[in-house]
Each structure stands twice: as C-alpha cells, then as structure tokens.
Write the structure tokens for this entry.
Amino acid sequence: MASSLLVVFWKESGFRESLMINIVADVRHGMRRLRRSPGFTATALLTLALGIGATTAIFTLAYQVILKAMPVQHPEQLYKVGKESECCIGGGDQGHWSIFSYDIYRTIRERVGGMADMTAMQAGAARVSAHRQGDTYAQPLDIRHVAGNYFEVLGVNPYAGRMLTADDDREGAPIVAVISYAIWKSKFHSDPGIVGDTVIMTGHPVTIVGIAQKDFLGERNMSDPPGVWIPLAQEPIFNPTRKLYKAPNGQWLRIMLRIPEKKNVPIVESAVRSGLTAWLMSNPDVRSGHTLAEIARESTELAPAADGINELRDSYETSLLMLQWTAAFVLLIACANLANLMLVRGVARRQELSVRAALGASRVRLVREMLIEAMLLALMGGVMGIGVAYLGVKGMLALAMRGVTIMPLSPLPSLPVLAFSIVASTMTGILFGIAPAFIASNADPADALRAANRATGNSGGLQRALVILQTALSVALLSIAGLFLRSLQRLEHQDLRFETTGRLIAFIDLPAAGYTYPRLEGLYRHLEQTFAAAPALHDMAYATYGPMTFMGWATGVNAAGPHPERTVSAGYSLNSPRYFSAIGTPLLQGRTFTEHDNPGSRHVAIVNREFVHQVLQDAPALGMHFGPGVDMAQEYEIVGVVDDAKYGDPSRGPQPMYFIPMSQITTFNNEPYTAAIIDQSNKAAEFKHFAANIIVRYEGDSAAAAVAMRHAIEQVDPGIPVTRITTYQDQISNSFTQRQLVVRLTAIFGGLALLLASVGLYGVTAYAVARRIPEIGLRIALGADRSQVMSMILRGALLQTAAGLLLGAPIAFLSGHYLQSQLYQVSGYDPAIFLLASAALILSAFVASVIPARMASNTDPIRALRME
C-alpha cells in the first residue's frame, strides 16, 4: 500500500518544486492540530513511547549481546578455534576441540606458519591478592594469561603506556601486565602513575606497562570480565601447584587467528586440524582407551569471532530473542490502538474533509496531511521511546548484573540502536497512519451537505478487526507471562535436597593468598579450631565447591565389576567431615566422613542416588569400588549414599556425584602413563584440595553471623581473600536472576498489552455508541428498557473480545510450544493458564465497555431524535 501511495503522489502531484513547501506547511498544520488536541496527543505519545521504548530497550541489549563486534581493528577478520565457549581447564580427548594445552597451541602455530596471525589466551581466569606500596589492605584482582602477541593480533591500541610484546612472553622475563581502562578506573582510581609502577600480586612484583584502550574489556564478552593481562610464560609463577604452561596435556587455552582474506579460511582451518591431529597422534591419552583410528577422528573447526568469545550471548540469546518478539507484539498492539484512535479522529473530520474536497483539495493532499500528522506522532513517540528504553535497560542491567563491578553492557543507545529506533518509529507511523488516512480522505463532496452527525463511511469493520487483533495478541502475551511465572514458582519452590535456611557460605581463594598444597592441612586444622570456638556458628565445613555455587568438576568414572570398561561422567567434590551436616543433605545409607579417613587409610567415597543409578546401575552401593579410569576402578570404596542435592542448573535433573575426603589424595604414580602425564595428574589432584567454599550453620541474625564468619577467617589468616559471604537463600536466589528478569519483563509486557487492548476496546465502544445515539434514542422512545440497551452494547463489545480470544488461542499455544525448552515442569499447552489469561482479558473488556454502555443507557431520547 505504501508503494501505491508513492505512485499516486508521483502521478497526481508530479513532485513539483512546491512539494517541499506544501510538506512544510502540512507539518506546521499538523503540529497545530496536535496542540489543539492535548488529550489525544498525550495518549498517542504515551502509547508510542511505551511500545517503541519496550522494543528499543530489548534491541539495545540484543545488539550488545548478540550483534556487536569487538572494538578492535577489522573484527571481521578474527576467527576462533572451536565453536563452543569451553571453560576452564580440561584433560583428555574432547571429540570436538575448543580448548588446548600450550604444547598443542605451539604445534598448531607451527603448522599455520605465515598463513595467519595466531594468538592464545587463558580460557578461564585466576585470582590474585594485589596491593601497591603504601596500601593498607590488599584487593582481589582477576588476571588472565595471554600470549605476548595477544593485543597485536586483536588490534588493540594502548590508552597509556604500551601493550604486551613477544619479548615479555618468555620464561625468566620480568613480570609485566597490562590492565583495562575499567580496572584502572575502578581498582586504581584513575591514578596516572600506575603505568610503570609495581603492584604486588600474591607476593610477586608485577610492573604495569600499559592501559588498554577505553572500550576494550578483553575478547570474552562476559559479566565482570577480568581486566589484568599477564604473559603466558608467567603462569607457573602464579599457579605453582599445577603449572599448566608446562603441562603437555593440560587444556586451558583458547586460540584465535586473524585471517585477512576470507578465501584463505579453509586452508588455515585444514592446517589447524592437521596440527591438532599430529599432536594427538604423537601424544595419545592412554587413559581414554582410544585407538589411533579413533584419535584421528578428533577434530576442530574455525568459527567467526568478530564478537570474540561471547559468553553473554550463550547465556542470554534465547531469552533476548523471545523478549524481542514479545516487545514486537506490544508495539503491534500499540499500532493497532493508535490506528483506532486515528480512525476515530479521521471520521470525526469527514465533514471538514468533504468541504475541502468540494473546494478542490485533492485526495493526495488530504492523505498526505493525515499521514504527516501520524509521522509527527511516531517520531515524537520514538524520541520519548529512547528515554523509556534507556531507563528500562538501566533497570534490567541492575537486576541481571547485580553485584557486578565491571559492567560489559551500557544502557546508552548506540548509533545502530538510534537507527533502529528511527526506523521503528517511521514504520510505526506508516503502519498506524496510512489506513486511517485513506479511509478518512475517501469523502464524497456531497457529504458536506449532509447533517454533521449522520454516520457515514465504513470504518467500523476495520476498527473491530483491530480490536480483535489486539485482544488476540494480548491473551497470547498474558499466557506467556503466566507460563513463565508458574515455571519460576515451581523452580524456586522445588526440593533442592539440602537446607537453605540458617546457612552461610563464604567464597575464598587460597591460591590468591599464596597457599601451596603442603600448607593446606595446617590451615584447615586451624580453621576447624577457630570456628569451633565461635558460639553462633556450627558444623563448619569446607569444600572444593558447595551446592549451587556455579562451580564444578567432572570426570569419567569406571566401576569395578562385570563391565569396568563402561565410563560415565560424574561430578565430584572434596569435602571436610562435617560437610553433609553443614549443607543439610540427608544420609540415606552408610556413614559420612570421619577423622579416621586420613591419608594412610583406605580411600573412601560417598555417592548420591543418581550415581548409584547411572554408574552402578542400581546395584547395592556400600562396599562397591570405582575410580577415574579403567585402570583405577578399585581406587575408592563407597561408604555412604546421600540424597540428590542440586549442584548445577536447578532446572535440570540431578547429575551423578561422588564426594571424597579432603584429607585423602589420589595419586597416579603406579599407573601406566608417561612421566609427564603422571606429574600433571598428581598436580591436578593436589590443586583440587584447595577449598573454595566454607559453609556454616548459624543461629540468630544472618548479618551478625556473617560478621562472625568473616572475623573467624581473618583470625586464621587476614590475607585470605573473602570474595563474598552470603546466606544460602540469597545464593539460591541469585541463580534465578535471569529467569526472574524474563518473568518480570513478560509480566510487564502482558500488563501493558492488557491495558492497551482495554483502552482500544473502550475507544471503539465509545465511538460506536456516539455514532448510534439517534438509533439508541429511537429504541428507548419506542419502549426499549435501559438495561436492554446496556446489554446490547456490552454484547457487541464482548463478542469482539470472544473473537479475539478464539484467534489468540492458537497463537498462545504455538508460543507455549516454542518456549517449552525454557519452562520447568510446566506444559506449554497449559489450558488453566490460558483460561486465567482469558478471564483477565474478559474482565478488563467488561470494565472498558461498561462505561460507554451506561452512557448509552442514559441517553435522552428527545435530545437524540433532535440530533437526527
């Protein structure tokens, strides 16, 4: 229709020189008309601001999370090895590789040669305790090890100082670091003297040689990104227990390449695969049991990395796309609502337009005038929508990024977002303005001689269709909101199989405090004694990680028995004796750990029910043996079975878990591995004895208990970084942040859709009543009861609502089917939720219709007949 309108403009006006003058005049005239109708203008602008603002707010986040490229030179030339965003340390065959050892990286780099520039970076991060000379307290800093050419390959310039170089990335070189602009501002208070200064990180002097450009936070798009980069060769200094830099089979690096010519990507990809295969064939992992033919099938691929390693996209893409569609529904409802308002406004002007047509005004001029008025409304609404979007994004980030120090996203609209808002506003103006403009301008000059109040035209059908569309979309949005709300309720109130009340959890970092494995036994003993003396704290326990802490380890295990070759992946944690009392997970069989489970005793383990089901295939568990590999199937003896506490994603079922005492260590000295693999495996086993969580049961006030817990840790060693102390209830609540955000936004969008649909129905009903005043007066004069008149008006409004519900039912159920994967123990076809949404809409429709219906029933028949 828009193209046909342009054709009409061309033919009838010829786009003469006076066209611009006429358009300017129409703009001025439109502004005057809008000023003379403040009620209509305010309603239209508010509706547009909410509709465009909601859509722009979601697009602002979607652009930054999904579409935005890294702020580096020619990001389209960057590629990453492997599609998956693996983190953080692995070992053994991956099947489809995405993290690598330094040894593999070096082999692949040699194969690629001069075909592409290649760099590597730590897949995870490490935490250090940092302070400058004169500082009273140390502060925790997250660091990442990167290759010396990291900034050169990515194309990052310094804000101050210099970037890392290849000379920095060699063993024995002075330890240097580059920090991000955000870290410089937040941690070092914008001190210009930081460049060239020395910062003590976990006892090691590090010279800060530069600050990266303002907008660069690293190649990982993530919340709270680490902003301290140190060369790869210095990793053993900060990780003396594992020394991954020297571990040939320790997979801890991501690899990125810059390939200027896209036609060379397949050639470079082939070289990368060739390098990986060559290394695997020369260094087979004997623990995997794979043949050389199976090893040869291990592979990888290059994936575009203009947006870097985008962890935020992996986490939020599905939710953002769903919310973008939801916001688009709201905008479409707003357009339908405004189209109705414009129809009413246009029909009210039919006599004026008829007179102007009789005096010689062309239809093109009339259409253009009304369309410009609609465009003025849309553009002003778009400007207001940008403000609404800014406030909305700010609120969403406050909820989604709660507790984040370095914010990777901004609520400020970028140029692409502004362009999106302008396009959305323009399309909105055309969408809600063009049909009313054509209908209102389709005036016969003879109508000017008719009575002003006689009904003319045929806009009622379109108005009713728009109300039906609004109703259908509104009930679909309300149903979606209901599904997400019920899903969240069931997720939050599920039985996690451990106690969340009266528990505190502290997050600590022992490697950052400079602890080594030989010092851990004394530290843990000191912690136990200190907490035992704290009167309000009970059942202190420490663990590699506790339930729902967003951390975890997993490995393949093999059970002794008829099929020891059968491997099942299982999570595991190392724990102190009071661990299960501290978290409140019930013991179902056997016993928990005791002080008798020491380094010289039989290695024991406690497993959960899912472990019994998947690994032991429901065989009697007590006394059974298993281990991390076929050759170690006798390593652990099961002495207890506990319930299936949730350790990972609460929306998923329990995973097989086993627990081993912190006081025992698994060694690989007698296994048929190479000396390098044995050394690497033993160091990895030592590293897993570094507790990351301390959990206590407390009585009384949680804030006072947290203070007592922090004081107890400081009594043992004030140098231990305590990242956070929180109640377990808050810890669990934090795991639902993303889902809570989605539920709140869909509920807001659903409520907004309901409000817009009600306003639209009210407007159409009131307009219909106004047009039918003479008819209603005649009915009352002929003896119609006022209640009958009211029923007639309500019946017409509710029939439109019923038609909308019939149209909305398949939309709601199809939406539920599409969103099924995001729901927890709720069917996307839940009829109860659809009925509740329908009831809410019917109630709103009744309220919106009853006011004009009462006005109709109070019509004075004498005055109505005089009007006719």
Observations:
- Confidence is low (pLDDT under 50) at residues 5-10, 12-16, 451-457.
